[in-house]
Design brief:
binds s-citryldethia Coenzyme A, globular, 446 residues, 3-stranded antiparallel beta sheet, 47% helix, alpha+beta, single chain, 4-stranded antiparallel beta sheet
Length: 446
């Protein structure tokens, strides 16, 4: 990167009267900018007029210090390890609520009354079936296709079948699109799994709960009766709650940016799925399992910790670290407790991968590098162990993350669409490429 040409100084950062003065002599002066406080967390400096007034851009690759929007949905305090959905702590929701209720809360801002919850669950239940012609998409994929590739394709294709819920300016159509996406993701996900193992698709059953229905569509076969295990159904429901929304993470920001152009909701969620797939984001749960299997034995933990600390080695401890959490991810704590419950229920208390993960966590959290960089286990560190014990292949882990995060994506998408200040997202850049030069015909080039 080029060297700084001059410096601007914040002459007066006065949160008291809500303003900051920026002094940039090289650009000809100083400017006052407003400071807006949040109800929780950091205040923001309003830089919307910065370029118009100063000719300067802000520079923040990866948006480490940038609030891209105003939101009322989820609050994270990374230093304290706090996660609130519409003000309710994730620990209380995971323990006392259920996924359908959390979906309603994220979408509408309040916990539902018994009647509201019953109506919402009915709406979701009666949208779980997929247009029968969509099943043809699966047969176009190789059996060994990664299910996330199938999810990207099939979810994007929903807009080819559900034209009556693609008008983003119609509140009713937005609501139907929300319900269809939340309702159909388990069906699409289960079908991707069934297709990969050559078993027939299993259709949803309206008498089952959301989590039970998903386990039924995934693990039942026509040849036998299937009763969802109540402990596993509750664990599945809790895993969905823990992954439902998480402020302006990479995939949610992708959905917001896609939606800012006016793209239909199905295309926006397909974009979110694509972003979530990366191993630095939602693909980490699959990468954690692969890492634990590569480590294999606790005697090799030290070797991998050393690799994670080696700047010349691209290896990172998957499931550790977070852009926001510089303390324990509160979801990881709940996930670890669920891990023990599920393994106890399945009689796999001595699952070697769990013992290895806990030993890896213990050693890492005592290591100066991880302590100094505030690298703690995140939501992905334990989730894969539970999912594998429940019978999911590692390739399905990120699919489950996408299934759960769909409600967060559609809630954030709706908030963006309904924001009166909403406009197309179009960042600028720091250009350091060639200055203007004249074209040279090829017969004059050496
Ligand atoms: C999710 O944003 C969200 O909210 C995401 C999520 C959600 O619910 O939507 O919470 C879900 O994506 C959780 C994160 C899952 N990813 C992983 O577990 C992959 C491993 N983690 C890292 O790749 C990393 O921690 C990130 C990507 C999660 C965060 O990276 P940042 O914030 O960009 O931090 P960084 O890469 O600048 O790291 C800071 C320092 C670096 O060292 P220095 O260059 O300062 O010397 O910490 C080091 C990094 O090298 N570091 C790690 C590490 N994570 C960061 N070193 C070893 N192992 C790691 N896991």
């Amino acid at each position: 990167m080029t060297q700084p040409s001059s410096t601007a100084t914040a002459a007066a950062l006065d949160e008291g009267n809500g303003s900051m003065t920026l002094s940039a002599p090289a650009s000809g002066g100083s400017w006052d900018m407003q400071i807006f406080p949040g109800t929780e967390g950091p205040s923001v400096i309003d830089v919307r007029r910065l370029y118009a007034d100063t000719g300067l851009f802000t520079y923040d690759p990866g948006f480490t210090s940038t609030a891209s929007c105003e939101s009322k949905i989820t609050f994270i305090d990374g230093d304290e390890g706090v996660l609130l959905h519409r003000g309710y702590p994730i620990e209380q929701l995971a323990e006392q609520s259920d996924f359908m209720e959390v979906c309603y809360l994220l979408l509408h801002g309040e916990l539902p009354s018994p009647k509201q919850k019953q109506e919402f669950e009915h709406a979701i239940t009666y949208h779980t079936m997929l247009h029968e012609q969509m099943l043809n998409f699966y047969r176009g994929f190789r059996r060994d296709s990664h299910p996330m590739a199938i999810m990207c394709g099939v979810v994007g294709a929903l807009s080819a079948f559900y034209h009556d819920s693609t008008d983003i300016n119609d509140p009713y159509q937005r609501m139907v699109a929300q319900h269809r996406l939340i309702a159909k993701m388990p069906t699409i996900a289960a079908m991707a799994f069934k297709y990969s193992i050559g078993q027939p698709f299993v259709y949803p059953r309206n008498k089952l709960s959301y989590a039970e229905n998903f386990l039924h569509m995934t693990f039942s076969v026509p040849a036998e009766d299937y009763q969802p295990n109540p402990v596993l159904s509750r664990a599945m429901d809790r895993i969905l709650i823990l992954h439902a929304d998480h402020e302006q993470n990479a995939s949610t920001s992708t959905v917001r940016i896609a939606g800012s152009s006016g793209a239909n909701p199905f295309a926006c969620i397909a974009a979110g799925i694509a972003s979530l797939w990366g191993p630095a984001h939602g693909g980490a749960n699959e990468a954690v399992l692969m890492m634990l299997e590569e480590i294999g034995h606790k005697d090799r933990i030290t070797e991998f910790i050393a690799r994670a600390k080696d700047k010349n080695d691209p290896f990172r401890l998957m499931g550790f670290g977070h852009r926001v959490y510089k303390n324990y991810d509160p979801r990881a704590t709940v996930m670890r407790k669920s891990c023990h419950e599920v393994l106890d229920e399945l009689g796999s208390r001595d699952e070697p991968l769990l013992a290895l993960a806990m030993e890896l966590e213990r050693i890492a959290l005592e290591d100066e590098y991880f302590v100094e960089k505030k690298l703690y286990p995140n939501v992905d560190f334990y989730s894969g162990i539970i999912l594998r014990a429940m019978g999911f292949p590692t390739s399905m882990f990120t699919v489950l993350f996408a299934m759960a995060r769909t409600v967060g994506w559609v809630a954030q998408w709706t908030e963006m669409i309904e924001d009166p200040n909403q406009k197309i997202s179009r960042p600028r850049q720091l250009y350091t490429g060639p200055v203007r030069r004249e074209y040279l015909p090829i017969d004059q080039r050496s």
